[in-house]
Amino acid sequence: MAEESPPSILVVDDEVNIGRVLAAMLRREGFKVKAVLDGAEAMAELKLRPWSLVISDLKMPRVDGDQLLEHIQEHYPDTPVIIITAHGSIGSAVEALKKGAFDYITKPFEAEEIRAAVEKAVRARALNASALHGAGRGGAGSTLSGRYGMVGDAPAMREIYRVIERVASQPSTVLITGESGTGKELIARALHAHGSRADRPFIRINCAAIPSNLIESELFGYEKGAFTGAEHTKPGRFELADKGTLFLDEIGEIPLEMQVKLLRALQESEFERVGGIKTLRVDVRLVAATNRNLQEAIEDGSFREDLYYRLNVVPLRLPPLRERTADIPLLVEHFIEKYNARLSRAVRGVSEAALELLQRYPWPGNIRELENVIERTLLFADNDVIDEDDLPPDLKASDADGLPIPALHLPAPSGEGGLKDVIREATTRVEREYIVRALEETGGNVTQSAKMLKISRKSLQNKMKEFGLREESR
Ligand SMILES: Nc1ncnc2c1ncn2[C@@H]1O[C@H](COP(=O)(O)OP(=O)(O)OP(=O)(O)O)[C@@H](O)[C@H]1O
Ligand SMILES: [Mg+2]
Question: In 3-state terms, the chain is what percent helix, strand and coil (to 5)?
Answer without folding.
Answer: 50, 15, 35
